[in-house]
Design goal:
The chain is an alpha/beta fold. It is about 45% helix and about 15% strand. It comes from Marinobacter profundi.
């Protein structure tokens, strides 16, 4: 046996020994095994579901909201599979995306109509960096089946300027910009406000700064715009079902966009599907612990940490801020 082959044999044997000690769940546990797995459960009962069973339960719902952790492969695979299953049961479908902003609806429509290519869509519509890996499948399904796609989010410039200058900034908009935002763009609830400030570290007696208040209003602008855009899409396409994809903070516990939807159109039926990251070492899906997050839950392996070194994390965050577009809000 040559030296390279011996080394290869030892490496394989070591990997085998280590795999026997790894605390990864096996295929029969009901827990996710890979980053493409997302086992589903009914939050009220803990009953496990597969995607066809979920689609059957949702076929008569007006708006299906799937929360996501942006960039997690399992969540995006679930969204694409659910989209196709819902279409089999109710072909009059609208895809609504937080990941495109309302001022780029025309760019999105041009692509759907075949008047531009994918790279042109990405450039013109300011698509997210992970568009091709995460959202291409659902957009292409909609394009292939000639389904409406809604650029649901508030224009990024308006969100940035509200975050910088506060809600009064919207009073400076011209007529064209005013058409992109809803009436009552800052409607919210005490529960959502408390959750937001907890998430950004403004709770437990810590004073809420003006900048934090402005950030909260920017968040509300996103939520209310998405609700407004969904309602407008339903008005233009009666009898359709909306599949809305969004970051889970905008939808879990039926807050954010979901609360804005139900405040404006209480007669709409809305189902919320929320992701849950699993802690290491769990032996069963912790449905009861997270039941309030949504009507249905899907469970994910946690993503690797971006940084372990706090100083490198800080520098990376500062670098991202430095690369942010220069917002002129005057």
């Amino acid at each position: 046996m040559t030296q390279p082959i011996r080394r290869l044999f030892r490496a394989a044997a070591t990997a085998l020994l280590l795999s026997g000690c790894t605390a990864m769940p096996d295929q029969t546990s009901g827990l996710p095994v890979t980053f493409y797995d997302a086992p589903l459960a009914v939050s009220a009962s803990g009953e496990p579901l597969d995607i066809p069973q979920l689609a059957a339960r949702l076929q008569h719902v007006d708006v299906v909201v799937v929360g996501e952790y942006h960039g997690h492969q399992a969540g995006h695979l679930l969204q694409a599979r659910l989209q196709a299953e819902l279409y089999q049961r109710r072909s009059r479908q609208i895809l609504s995306l937080e990941q495109f902003n309302a001022d780029h609806q025309g760019d999105l429509d041009r692509y759907l109509q075949g008047d531009s290519g994918e790279e042109e869509l990405i450039e013109d519509a300011d698509a997210w960096a992970n568009y091709q890996a995460s959202y291409r499948p659902v957009v292409e399904f909609a394009r292939t089946h000639q389904l409406p796609v809604v650029a649901a989010n508030a224009p990024a410039q308006l969100v940035r300027c509200v975050g910088r200058l506060g809600p009064g900034y919207l009073e400076t908009l011209d007529t064209a910009q005013q058409k992109l935002i809803p009436e009552h763009p800052f409607a919210g609830s005490p529960a959502y406000r408390a959750k937001f400030f907890r998430a950004i570290g403004g709770s437990h007696g810590t004073a809420v700064s003006e900048r934090m208040e402005n950030s909260y209003h920017a968040q509300l602008l996103r939520d209310n715009t998405m609700a407004h855009r969904i309602i407008a899409a339903l008005a233009h396409n009666p009898g359709h079902q909306v599949l809305h994809l969004t970051g889970t903070f905008h939808s879990e516990e039926r807050l954010g966009t979901v609360a804005a939807l139900q405040e404006r159109r209480p007669e709409l039926t809305v189902a919320v599907i929320s992701p849950v990251f699993l802690d290491s070492g769990v032996q069963a899906l912790p449905v009861r612990d997270h039941a309030a997050k949504g009507d249905y839950l899907y469970f994910l392996l946690p993503l690797p940490e971006d940084y372990r070194d706090p100083e490198r994390r800080r520098k990376a965050m500062m670098a991202r801020f430095d690369k942010a577009p220069d917002s002129r809000c005057d």
